[in-house]
Give the backbone structure.
Amino acid sequence: MKWSNENITSVTPFQYITSLLFGKLSLLAEIVKVRITVLVSFTTALGYFLGTDKISFEFLYPVTGIFLLACGSAALNMYQERATDALMERTKNRPIPSGRIKASGVLMISIALLLLGSAVLISKTNLIALSIGLLTFFWYNGVYTLLKKKIALAIIPGSIVGALPPLAGWAAAGGDIFDIKILYIALYFFVWQIPHFWLLLLIHGEDFSRGGFPVLTEKLNKKAIVAITFFMLVFTVLISVAIPLFNIINYNFTYILLLMFAAFMIYSAHRFFISDLTRKNILKAFIGINIFTLFFIILLIVDRMFFLMLIR
C-alpha cells in the first residue's frame, strides 16, 4: 500500500511546542478555575480604585497578588474535593478525577501560587492587604469548604469570601478598612453570592446530593427556594441602587445607567419568579445577576477613574 502526502500529517516543531504549551495552560486554567478567579481580580481592582486618589499602574500589584492567592485557593479546593468531584456529573471531568494530573501536582501548584501571591502582596502593597488575602484563603479552604459538607446553608458564612477582595484592594490603596464606603461595597458582594449559589443549586441540586453535600433542596421544595432566591436577587439589586447614600458614585449619569440596568434586573428576576422552573429559565436568571454584577463593577471603576482624571 502506498501512502500519499494526504495520509501524512506533518507537524513542525513550532506547532508541536505551541500545542503542548496551550494544553498545559488550558489545564492550569481549569485547575485554578480562572473564570471565577478573574472576577476576584475585578472586585480587588474596584476596591483599589475607590480607595486611591490617583491613577497609576500600582493597582496591578494588589490585583495580581490577590489573583494568585485566589488561584492557589481554587487549586487547593480542587485537591480537597477530588473524591466528591469524581462522584458528580458536573465535576467528574475536572483535571484530578479525569486523571489528567495527579492530586499531588495540584497541591504543589496551590502551594506555589500561595507563596507567590503572598510575596507580591507583602513586597508591593502592605501587611493589611496581605492579611485580608490570607484570611480569604483560610476562610474558603479552611472554613467554607469543610462547612458545606456539614450544613445546607454553608453559603451564608461562605459568602464572606466574596466580600473580602474589595477590602484587600481598598487596603492596598491605603484606605481604612472600616470605612463605611468599602464596607457597603463588601456587603453587596456578600449578598450577591447567595442567589448566585442558590440558582446553581436549582440546576445541580441532585448532583450536589450525589457528591454527599447537604443541600437546601432536601429541606425545602423548589418553589420555596425560588421565592427566597427571588427575594435575594431583588435585595442584591436594591443594595446597588442605594449606593449614592454612601457617596461612592460621582456622576448623575453613572447613577442613571445603574438605575436603568437595575430596573431591567428586577424585571428579569420577576420573570424568573413567575416562569416555569426550567433549566433554561434558571440559567437566564443566573447569567443575568452575574452580568449585572460585572456591569456594577465596571461602572463604578469607570466613574471613579473619570473623577480622578478630572481632579488632577
